[in-house]
Design a protein that fits this description.
One of its GO terms (molecular function) is iron ion binding. It comes from Didymosphaeria variabile. 48% of the residues lie in helices and 10% in strands. The chain has 292 residues and is mainly alpha-helical. Strands 1-4 form a two-stranded antiparallel sheet. The longest helix has 32 residues.
Length: 292
């Protein structure tokens, strides 16, 4: 109860500052009016929007990052290629930030896309409904007229494993996203919908890519990681193979997703040890603990 009171007090205090006090959620939504009543947002409306953003922006990015590390740990050639790209593009971990250098790491982006393709952060069917009152427009799918009021949707996981769009769909192949064939590239991008598309597309898409890119790039700059070689039970946590015989991160659907694993062993790179001491002000005891 004390936590909710603290959050409520924070929202009330922020509203008292006014729209132009800072650039945040309130700055953008304060002018939104109910089209029927003309009323602005109430406290409970702001609360519900803010509460939605936590899982929407947290659980999904967490799944994307987890999936990327999972597949990279199981495809050593992809791991090596990405490590080389990151460690050749930057001279220090401090350099890794949003900008042209990071966006120029095309294999990094390909790895993120491929991880989200195989294990979409939201893998479910996002149902839509043609309004009952919309009698002037026919909704036709593959020659079939869909009556108003019918719920329709395409399952994201199924779409991402359609062999017509993604050959060898259960295999982690980041290089497929670097294919310069325009026809193939368009076909893949049209079928790739981890953020949904159209008017219901995720507004945080650019931020999610930025967060994932920075997190993975910094991980590869500072650390090496591998599967726990001497503990098979720990190594298999979160892994399923029953669909294709290839390793896949199991994600459970709860609109977003939840997952277990993977268990990985991280070690600090020799090249990063001194940098962490100088720039991050970590103690040598902490660095040695990371390195052990």
């Amino acid at each position: 109860m004390a936590y909710y009171k603290k959050v409520r007090d924070f929202i009330v205090a922020r509203r008292a500052e006014g729209k132009h006090a800072r650039r945040d959620l309130y700055s953008f939504v304060v002018d939104i009016k109910d089209p029927e009543t003309g009323e602005g947002l109430r406290l409970r409306d702001i609360w519900s929007e803010a509460a939605f953003f936590v899982p929407a922006g947290g659980d999904t990015t967490s799944t994307a990052l987890t999936a990327a590390l999972f597949y990279l740990s199981r495809y050593p050639e992809c791991y090596k290629r990405l490590a080389n790209e990151i460690r050749n593009a930057f001279t220090s971990g401090v350099e890794i930030r949003h900008g042209t250098k990071l966006s120029g790491c095309t294999y990094l982006r390909a790895c993120i896309d491929e991880a989200m393709r195989i294990t979409p952060p939201i893998a479910t069917t996002l149902w839509r409904q043609l309004p009952e009152s919309d009698n002037e427009q026919l909704f036709v799918v593959e020659g079939q007229v869909i009556p108003p009021g019918t719920e329709v949707g395409v399952n994201i996981y199924t779409m991402h494993h359609n062999e017509e769009y993604f050959p060898d769909s259960y295999c982690f192949k980041p290089e497929r996203w670097l294919d310069e064939s325009l026809g193939r590239k368009k076909l893949m991008h049209d079928a790739f919908t981890p953020f949904s598309i159209g008017s219901r597309g995720c507004g945080g898409k650019a931020m999610a890519y930025q967060e994932a890119s920075i997190a993975i790039a910094k991980t590869f700059w500072y650390l090496d990681f591998e599967r726990p070689a001497h503990d098979m039970k720990a190594d298999r946590v979160g892994e399923i193979t029953q669909y294709s015989g290839k390793p896949e991160l199991e994600a459970l659907d709860q609109f977003a997703s939840v997952h277990r694993g993977p268990n990985l062993v991280f070690r600090l790179r020799d090249e990063a040890r001194d940098e962490l001491f100088e720039t991050e002000k970590l103690s040598y005891s902490t660095i040695l603990e990371l390195h052990s």
